[in-house]
Write a structure and sequence with these properties.
This protein is an alpha+beta fold. The protein has three helices and six strands; from the N terminus they run H-E-E-E-E-H-E-E-H. The N and C termini lie close together (9 Å).
Length: 121
Amino acid sequence: MKDIVVELKKIIPFKDTTEIGDIVLIAAKEPQMLLYAHVDNIKRDSTRQDEWWHLDLTMLSIPLQKTTWTLRPPQMAGQELFTMGGEERFFQAIDLGNEDTSTVSSARQKKGAITGLKRVK
C-alpha cells in the first residue's frame, strides 16, 4: 500500500488538510480500489478523549453512497495509513486550486516523470 501512495503523491496534487467541501481520494488494497468522495461535514467526536473526527462523505460512485468515517487528523491529512475491517486505507484531500495544469504537465515531461499510474504489486 505504501508503494501505491508514493505513486499517487507523484501525480496528484494533495492538500495538507481536509475541510468541508473537499474532494478526497480514497485508496484501498483489499478490495483493490481508488475512489473519490466529497466531504459533506466534519464533526468532533466528543465521546473520545483523543482527537477523532466524524467525516460525513458522499462516495462519488454510481449510485452515490453516503457514509460516515471516524478518523484522526493524521489519517485525514494522508500522513498515515489506517485500517478498516483489517484492510489498509489511504485518505487525502485533493488540491483543486488554480494551479496551471499545462505548467505541471510540461514540468513532469521535462523531468521524464510518468504521467499515468503504473501497476504496483
